[in-house]
Amino acid sequence: GIVLNAGVAYDAPFDALTVEQVASGPATRSSTRTGDDPLDLHVDLDLLAPLKLLRALLRADALAKPCSVVLISSNVVRQALVGKLAYTVAKAGIESATRGLARELG
Question: Which pLDDT does position 23 carry in this prediction?
Fold first, then answer.
């Protein structure tokens, strides 16, 4: 089986233009792609990356059959936290994708 747990969670107001406007400290800056929109960053890393990895593994027939696939979400999906909208949207997408994949892959 495989556990897919991608996650980056910046405190970013919905109208923030770039990660630089919300990131602070050298560790945070070095882990971001310069100029990225926080919404794009969260969707790319928290939603698309694990799904694309899973798809690549399935296409390469690299997972044992049968196997378990675990996609990690967050309890933030059921809360309304200021500054976490982009993260919440991406993790809600993971939950929806998990339900769809369960039906599609069995």
Answer: 54
